[in-house]
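Changelog note: in this version the structure field was regenerated for every chain. One regenerated record is shown below for reference.
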Amino acid sequence: MGKKIGFISLRFAGTDGVSLETAKWASVLQEEGHECFFLAGEVDTPPERSMADPLLHFQSPIIKDLNKRLFGRSLRTKETTEVIYELKKTIKQKIYDFVNKFDIDLIIPENALTIPLNIPLGIAITDFIAETTIPTIAHHHDFFWERKRFLRNAVWDYLNSCFPPSFPSMFHVVINSSGQHQLGLRTGLAGILIPNVMDFEKPPAPPDEYITDLKKNIGLEEDELLFLQPTRIVQRKGIEHAIELVARMKRKAALVVSHASGDEGYVYLNRVKDYIKLMGVKAIFADDIITDKKRYIREDGTKVYTLEDIYNCCDLVTYPSVFEGFGNAFLEAIYYKKPIFVNNYSIYYYDIRPKGFRALEMEDFVSDETITNVERVLNNKEVRDRMVYKNYQLGLKYYSYALVRTRLRHIMTAIWGHTT
């Protein structure tokens, strides 16, 4: 008999990495005969299987105000501690309500015990596990020690006890080898490695008529190369490098940025726009005509496309990130059989590259050699086809749903002695 599994996080909405990977895990678990339910500050999951409370969201005004009092300083006042405990009590009751309402057998905190964007939520989940001994799979994406902004704080006691906690009923899953090593080194906990994945067993559908006029509709000429930056506009994405790459191409090219800056503010967005003007590059911010759901046509006749549509039409994916927990866009480029321009960021260098993937690489800056390699691939279909075919086969081998399915089965067997 299948189990009832409850995912808990700050949000399950949009195209951030945590939401995307949660959806993939849920898909795998449902195919295995389990039922999945969702609790977060914001959800776009099926309403009949979801609960939402704004207090769980990192954008909740009271949580944002609390974070200002906890990070970037070393002193925590008595009043702030009392606020944390009151919020923790409220959130913990919401978790009890969620588990009782759906009769949950196992919880999966998604990054909620990893990155301290909502301290009361992390404490509440920790208390709940301690009080119930409920089987738990903590899915860790971004540890607090990986981000400079969290290293000066007034909550070392909470970070050391709840981010993440340790219980006999708890398993820890990490998405890269570095996280696995650091988790063991810093906490003594054993991490199970399950990287981000794509459904490589089911190749994407071929392009259809809907996207034949996509380039024209977003403002590109037919002979212009479409370079896709499939990320939010945040500093660690290194978008300046993609802009420089476009500027140095010998062929006409334009950069299409798929997502807005979101909750990261607008300082870096303005920096990117200034750099685009400085480099004289054609760039299109396409977040208003890209949806993560279904394509549709607006009342004024404007087409709205999916990210898959943009991938299908692009000539090159740009991914010059300085830092990534894993790199979903890398896998998406491989899945849609597109060449990818990538900075040699640490997780790519340590976990992904050694498996044999072929990418157009840069080492922290765009060199003449980088430009030569990009142009060679874009100008030679035979070379390009060999590259993307090999990458897809490696994706199927190392980053398919089968890997998630197998490793989650092992964990659930360790919990119950059986998987259904």
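Spot check on this record: The mean pLDDT is 94. The longest strand covers residues 35-40.
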